[in-house]
Amino acid sequence: MEDKGMEHPRLILHNFLTEEECKELEFIHRSCSTVGYRPNVFSTTLSHLIATNSPHLIIPFLPIRDRLKEKVEEIFGCEYELVTEFTGLISWSRGASIGWHSDDNRPYLKQRDFTAVCYLNSYQKDFKGGLFHFQDGEPKTIAPLARDAVMYTADSRNTHSVDEVTEGERLTLTLWFSRDSSHDEDAKLIPLIAESLLHKSNNVPCSFLPLPASDNMYWFAPNQASHQELGFDIRLGRLHSLGFDVYYSQGMSFISDLSELLMEPMQLARGHQLLDHEFANALHALQVVQFYFWKGCKSQTFTNEVQSGKVVKLSQSQCEKISQVKSVFLKDTKLVETVFRRVEQQSFDSASFSAAITAWEDYSRKLHKEILMSFPQWRAHQAIYSVQFDVS
Ligand SMILES: O=C(O)CCC(=O)C(=O)O
Ligand SMILES: [Fe+2]
């Protein structure tokens, strides 16, 4: 597929990522994304993961990022010349599209030399619409397929567009590379990680519990809506699409500032049942729920001991508290269901779910250890780079 004349330098690599890598990144995005930079777009940036006390979740990105950079350098003949300018997960829901453009088409984007887009899910299977087109040269149209990666120069030789997504959520891992070492994203990320690891704030009792960002970063507003009442909180929206409600035992009347509610400890409900476990906040609950579905909902897939997951029937007043929260944070459940496809009658097993809570902790603890251990080396790398840069 390589354009030999390099009139339009680009390449498609099939099966560049493993299925497992795609699923893990999907898990991270579905549990950590914020509303994106354009309508109907969601994103998960590395700096956001660090800022929400989840720096350990950047671990799965690192080997992929290195492999992609090496591949781009090899294909385009610029070994050891590139730095990663940006790494992030981006998803497009119904209504998102982008017209003809090149990725360096703004003065502040001129440092971008190469683009790599990895498809984490598939056209027709996971979403409709969202075909990718190059304006000139071959191939002309690309139908996103999970595990494939597309690489191209960021200049006008590779002007491209993406059709509007009409259903589902189109998910990519997107990276930009630069020859200008002053645009290395690590230079920004490393101090943030250091701060996160070294100065744990007092209100984070556990080293890997997520700490939500400000509420507006999770507020989905339908296209150009002037009225706030038509949006929804994407954390609760994603929980809703998987069949979960959130329950605050204290009710809403105790909270003076409603926007703080989703930072408070809460429980999950499903149908007429209240699950026994207390989560630190809505983001924590979302991470565990997404982990449960990522791992396949079956207790056999969780290696730890399965305790019985306690559930109790919701009382009338508890149901009312749930509806109150919904009326504030999920005003339009129809809209939620078009943005995040409702998963119909997903089987749910409370014993497996409580096993998943422990498995999520083990997973997080393992990644947390890895980031703690790799961090000094990583910083040393950075030091070497800057020395080389100073000398030249
Ligand atoms: O997701 C894609 O296929 C490309 C997206 C794009 O063109 C961009 O983010 O600049
Ligand atoms: Fe683009």
TrEMBL record:
Its EC number is 1.14.11.7. Its cofactor is Fe cation; L-ascorbate. InterPro entries: Oxoglu/Fe-dep_dioxygenase_dom, P3H, Pro_4_hyd_alph, Pro_4_hyd_alph_FE2OG_OXY. It comes from Herrania umbratica. GO terms for biological process: collagen metabolic process. Keywords: Dioxygenase, Iron, Metal-binding, Oxidoreductase, Repeat. The keyword rRNA-binding does not apply. Residues 71-179 form the Fe2OG dioxygenase domain. GO terms for molecular function: iron ion binding; L-ascorbic acid binding; procollagen-proline 3-dioxygenase activity. This is procollagen-proline 3-dioxygenase. It is an enzyme of class 1 (oxidoreductase).
